[in-house]
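User: Round two. Same drill as before: sequence, then structure, for each protein.

Assistant: Same drill it is. First protein:
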Amino acid sequence: MDVKLWNDKREREMYENFAELFAIIKATEKLEKAYVRDIISPAEYEPECQKLIAHFKTLASTLKDTVPSIERFHDTYKMDCPAALNRLLTSGVPATVEHRAATAMSATTSAATVAECVQNFITAMDSLKLNMVAVDQVHPLLSDLSASLNKLNILPVDFEGKTKMKEWIARLSKMGAADELTEQQARQLHFDLESSYNSFMAALPTAGA
């Protein structure tokens, strides 16, 4: 005797949708594992993943009343597809798109930090030219410059500008706030700033490459 899973057309469509949802989750899990293991190329992975995500979103929307929780559906049928849940629910975009976005964000962040470093170099050098040589005037400028240089991870740890700014900050920290740099000290600091700035600008193309 045949056992019917459904009593009417509506129930039949529901079970068919359940089967399709199950298949999409399983297929996404296999695709994610294949990509991670380099079995398929990024060019093959991305369009297939986009199709699965699109189908999933459409189906999940259709089933929102009968399957309010995809996680519960996943657990009920003991699917064991963590990568698929991450891709379909948490991320919502292929891993290749995630990687490109992360790279673009990193590049944007680096560009902003480079601009900040340049501004801090110029501000410090201009301040010395304007005879702003009191410790409480110079120290904050060098601290800002040092902080911005340290944020830029494309520079080596022993980069000239980092080392020299650290030395100058340590020297200024031993002086009183109202103390002023001598003409010789101000001249040397300006020279170190200019030298570090030139090294910084020269390092950028190499670092960027």
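Second protein:
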Amino acid sequence: MGNLAITGREPLFTPCTPKGCIELLLRAGVEITGKKAVVIGRSNIVGLPTSLLLQRHHATVTVVHAFTENSKQVTCEADIVVAAAGLPNLVRGDWIKPGAVVIDIGTTPVEDPSCEDGYRLVGDVCYEEAVSVASIITPVPGGVGPMTVAMLLLNTLDAAKRILNFA
């Protein structure tokens, strides 16, 4: 984590989910440089490394957490919102600045008798409300999850290259 935070240093491996989020933004053609980004959640595995990666891409990053006052107001100003709090439907449509890009990392099982397994996965963002406000939004499931798997494979490939002394 320290190497991720220090300019000019590279971590041995970048955590897969944050790495996947940045890759999603880049592949979608989202301009990160100079944009206001809000990361909701500050866990060591997702929130913190995501905020550091966004800073590496020259975004102005604010981290919102359980003790942040006016979380809604702070989030409303963001061009990029990354929700990683683990609280289903925390971020409502009125939290999103029109045209903002929303990356929903949260996946929480919520009881739903109409589903085959008796539950469904719900993100941290209320998709039904946010989809009409955001310019881009990742679904749950099927958004960040596959990117996490892809980045795990990339990290595995990088590890094999290191062991075999490939460039």
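DSSP finds six helices and seven strands in the chain.

User: Perfect.
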